[in-house]
Amino acid sequence: MADVHNSATRSRNMAAIRGTNTKPEMLLRKGLHARGFRFRLHEKTLPGRPDLVLPKYRAVLLVNGCFWHGHDCYLFRWPATREEFWRRKIAGNVARDTANITALRAAGWRVSLIWECALKGKLRWPDEEVIDRVSLWLSSDDPVLELRGRDSAGNEGQG
């Protein structure tokens, strides 16, 4: 199927997509800050520049878009045009994510991966529940937390 936009329009649309300060990221920041958590943003000295860094808890939060990070959920669909480019691009993102998480864990950081589908779309969790889960994780000793959207049966989407 051909793209519905011409090349210039598609380029403009893709360039407008944010990499930082996304709606899901802002929702988490606002909710955690309201609960008294203090954090740094996009710390350049850490692998992958995590979205939120909480040094007091030795924890980082990564808020990943399902499309850009190749999440296996209903929000992700392979583009029908330039398939080879997109497969290479997204596979590279996934490989980089894996390497960054491994490096963070090796450096002693606790890592939380929060997928876009947990915060948006038909299978999202209520915002307060996501903030509750992250807050509880921050106060625990668990090394990893992964939040994803609920499955179609309404079951927990936590990995």
TrEMBL record:
Which Gene3D superfamilies does the UniProt entry name for this protein? VSR Endonuclease
Which SUPFAM superfamilies does the record associate with it? Restriction endonuclease-like (SSF52980)
For this UniProt record, give its keywords in alphabetical order, as a comma-separated list: DNA damage, DNA repair, Endonuclease, Hydrolase, Nuclease
Q: Which InterPro entries does UniProt cross-reference here?
A: DNA_mismatch_endonuc_vsr (IPR004603), Restrct_endonuc-II-like (IPR011335)
One Gene Ontology MF term: endonuclease activity
- Write down the CDD domains for this protein, in alphabetical order: Vsr
> Which family is it part of?
Belongs to the Vsr family.
Q: What is this protein called?
A: DNA mismatch endonuclease Vsr
Protein species of origin: Paracoccus methylovorus
The taxonomic lineage of its organism, from the top, reads:
Bacteria, Pseudomonadati, Pseudomonadota, Alphaproteobacteria, Rhodobacterales
What gene is this protein translated from?
vsr
